[in-house]
Amino acid sequence: MIKEIFGWPIYIGKMKNHKKIKEAMEPILNDPKYFHKPEDWRCDVDSTYDLNLNNSIDYSLYTDEVVNTHLKNYLKNFNPINDHNIIFNSWMNRYRPGQYQEQHSHISHSAHFSCTYFMTMPKDGGQFVYVDPSFDYLMSFGFYKWYKNTYTRNYIPEQEEGTVIIFPSNLEHFVTQNNSNSDRVTISGNFTITDQDFV
To answer: Residue 120: pLDDT band by 50, 70, 90 thresholds?
Structure first.
């Protein structure tokens, strides 16, 4: 399903291999050596991001479905005209009770599109939220003083367990605090599109 937010199309789909992926990742989630708090993140979430051990995690069940089904369906929206390659890298985020992630985008990673897969979603476990930068522009000159209907700053997409969202990497987003007593787990990733002769 394609939805448009702030003038950009995002894709929302259901992972058919959700149960198998969740079972395959269980040993990783129970092993503390796979997680750390990335130094350049301004939050307290635990992640496999930027760890050498992340390269040893078998993401194949997840990657195959995301790239060959969901990303393929999403990119049809842009009417492809030339063959190209897709470079995809993934990492896992684990939100313990009380943890969150700050507002950010993925453009600093040379990514063109990004994704988030909601692998474990306890009730009150936090929400993935998009942010519209134009809202700050309108507020900067007091637009709300003269007009009732202003833009909504935040957009919260569907994010049930087993859902995957694909979006342009420039879209700002954040994750609210996990207010449950269980871990919230997501797998995120970046896609880079290159010419077929790129080495």
So the answer is: very high
Helix (H, G, I), strand (E, B) or coil at 124: coil
Residue 196, both tokens: 């077929």
Predicted model pTM: 0.91
Q: Whole-angstrom Cα distance, residue 49 to residue 168?
A: 20
- The answer to whether the Cα torsion of 187, 152, 103, 46 is positive or negative is negative
Q: Residue 155 corresponds to which amino acid? A: Y
- The sheet with strand 154-155 has its strands ordered as 101-104, 172-175, 128-131, 154-155
- End-to-end Cα distance, the chain: 33
Question: Residue 98 pLDDT more than 70?
Answer: yes
Give the lowest-confidence range in 101-110, 156-165, 168-177. Answer: 101-110
2-194, what's its fold?
A: Jelly Rolls (2.60.120)
Ramachandran class of 165: left when φ > 0, alpha when ψ lies in -120 to 50, beta otherwise: beta
Name the DSSP letter for residue 130. Answer: E
